[in-house]
Structures are given as structure tokens and as C-alpha cells.
Design goal:
The chain is of the alpha/beta class. It contains 10 helices and 10 strands. The protein has one domain (3-107, 163-268): Rossmann fold. The protein has helices spanning 55-63, 90-95, 113-121, 126-130, 137-149, 165-178, 195-208, 221-227, 245-249, 252-268; strands at 15-26, 29-40, 44-48, 70-76, 82-84, 98-101, 183-187, 213-217, 230-235, 238-244. The two termini are 36 Å apart. The model is unreliable at 263-269 (pLDDT under 50). Bound molecules: adenosine-5'-diphosphate and magnesium ion.
Length: 269
């Protein structure tokens, strides 16, 4: 990709997020090394790479959990106003519309599916204030819409603890959606899922494209094949390659650093 294509003036679709020249060391070890990454508005991007490539650290930097040593992380506003995320705290970044889903689901097991969504819609108000919450029609509409998107309408009044592992993951994605984020960061959504659940997760993520911008970290190659638009391969904290899935997967450097190991890992399963 030429540098020109990173210039907002030369794009059909505006950028929503720019990560440029970002580095981060832990005890002298460069976990992220001069990373450049540009996400378009409404894009669904998958990020792959071997263990230790810096994928989770990359998400930590975007969400403010980790501060970069150098470089800029910029959120581009709809109004053309840019925000430097590298200076903000985690909750401030979250309020700007960047939601993150960690690998293990963290739903409120003793609340119903519906109430979990109510709680997340309330955002920072917390459980106590939610006790005195009176549902607004617009909230109910939003929750019904989310339930439909995550295909859990029929489970709305069941306890979240009674859901399967995959359904809990969808509920947690729904809890992020209830807050209507501009960018969703999702770390290995298909881990531990059955084949059918994995495929449904792919359909769910594809249905979110355009309405939100998404960065999905994943290892499962079948799953990546299903959802892949543009794929970014991280290696030693740097972008090794990005482009269409078919181009990326047949790149010799990518095969060497990632797919070779992936093959071994798959055999160990
Ligand atoms: P990935 O998610 O691609 O497997 P990570 O981002 O978790 O990779 O880690 C990248 C590298 O940075 C690893 O070598 C890891 O040990 C190191 N690392 C990540 N976070 C920390 C930390 N908080 N302290 C020290 N080293 C870390
Ligand atoms: Mg990781």
C-alpha cells in the first residue's frame, strides 16, 4: 500500500483510526516496534500473527490499557476532529466509542440475558442505580434490536449463566453493541466454540460491518477465511503484511512466520 492511501484526502472511505510509528518496550523488549495501522470507517479487519507477535498489546494501546513509548494513536471524528488517544485514560477512550471484548466472557451469570443488556446500556451508572432504572421505550427498542442481532431473542428471560459458551460470547458482544460503539475490538471470539457456533459468530461479525468499525484478532484460519476482508499480519510487533486473505495467506514470509507454526499448533489440538 502506498503512503498516499494513508492520506485521508486520497480516500473514498474516511479513516476512523490511525496508529502511526507506535513502539512499546517491556524491560527493553520491543513488544510493538514502529507499528503503522490504518482502519477505515465501517471496516472489518482481522489481525493475525504468531503468539507473542504483539496482538493483545496492540489492542491494549488502542484502548489505553498500555501507553505507547512513541508514536501516535488517533481517533478521527465524524466532524473531522481528531483525538490523540495516547494521552487519554482507559475509561475516556471507552466513552469516545471504543469498546473491547476480552477473550473470556464476563457476563452477569445470575442476571437474565435481557438484564445484562440493560446493565450495559446503563454504562457507567452501575448496578445500584440500575435498581431504580425505569425502562424508556427507546432503550427497549435498542435492546430488542441487539437481541435480534446476536440471535438470543428466545433466551431473553433466561439467566445468562444458563447459556452455552458461544452464546455467552454473543451476549458479551451484544453488551458492547448496546453502547453503540464506533469501534469494536474483539480478541479471539471463536476460541473454545463449536464449529456451528464459530460459523454463527462469523455471520454476526459480518452483519456488524459498515454499522461499526471492527478489529478482530483470531487464530482459527477457517474462521478468518469466513470473515476475512483485509487481513493484517503482525510479527515481532510490526506489520509483516496486509491485504486480501488470499494474497496474505500465500505470501512466503507469512507462511514462514505464521502459517507454518499454526499448522503445528493445529496438530497439537
Ligand atoms: P500476542 O497477543 O500476539 O500473543 P502479546 O501482545 O500478548 O502478544 O505479547 C507480545 C510480547 O510482549 C510478548 O513477548 C509478551 O511476553 C510481552 N508482553 C506483553 N505484555 C507485557 C507486560 N505487561 N510486561 C512484560 N511483557 C509483556
Ligand atoms: Mg494475545
Amino acid at each position: 500500500m502506498s503512503n498516499l492511501s494513508h492520506d485521508p484526502l486520497y480516500r473514498d472511505t474516511p479513516l476512523i483510526l490511525s496508529v502511526s510509528g507506535v513502539s512499546k518496550s517491556f524491560d527493553g523488549f520491543k513488544a510493538i516496534n514502529d507499528l503503522n495501522f490504518y482502519l477505515e470507517e465501517g471496516e472489518l479487519r482481522t489481525v493475525i500473527g504468531p503468539n507473542g507477535a504483539g496482538k493483545s498489546t496492540f489492542m491494549d494501546i488502542i484502548t489505553g490499557r498500555t501507553r505507547p513509548d512513541e508514536g501516535a494513536v488517533t481517533l478521527h471524528g465524524i466532524d473531522g476532529h481528531d483525538t490523540n488517544l495516547a494521552k487519554l485514560r482507559e475509561y475516556e477512550i471507552n466513552r469516545l466509542g471504543i469498546g473491547r471484548k476480552f477473550q473470556t466472557p464476563s457476563v452477569y451469570k445470575s442476571h437474565t440475558v435481557y438484564d445484562n443488556l440493560v446493565l450495559s446500556l446503563q454504562g457507567h451508572r452501575g448496578v445500584f442505580k440500575t435498581l431504580f432504572y425505569r425502562e424508556q421505550p427507546a432503550d427497549r427498542e435498542r435492546i430488542m434490536e441487539v437481541l435480534k442481532t446476536i440471535r438470543l431473542e428466545s433466551r431473553a428471560h433466561d439467566l445468562a449463566g444458563s447459556l452455552s459458551h458461544g452464546q455467552k460470547q454473543w451476549l458479551e458482544i451484544g453488551m458492547l453493541l448496546a453502547q453503540d460503539p464506533r469501534i469494536l475490538l474483539i480478541d479471539e471470539p471463536a476460541a473454545g466454540m463449536s464449529d456451528e457456533e464459530t460459523e454463527r459468530t462469523g455471520e454476526l461479525l459480518l452483519s456488524l460491518e459498515k454499522k461499526h468499525s471492527l478489529i478482530v484478532i483470531e487464530h482459527d484460519m477457517e474462521f478468518i477465511r469466513q470473515i476475512a476482508r483485509k487481513v493484517t499480519v503482525l510479527h515481532q510487533g510490526h506489520v509483516l503484511k496486509d491485504g486480501k486473505f488470499d494474497v496474505v495467506k500465500s505470501d512466503p514470509k507469512v507462511i514462514e512466520v505464521y502459517l507454518g507454526r499454526q499448522g503445528k499448533k493445529e496438530n497439537n489440538k
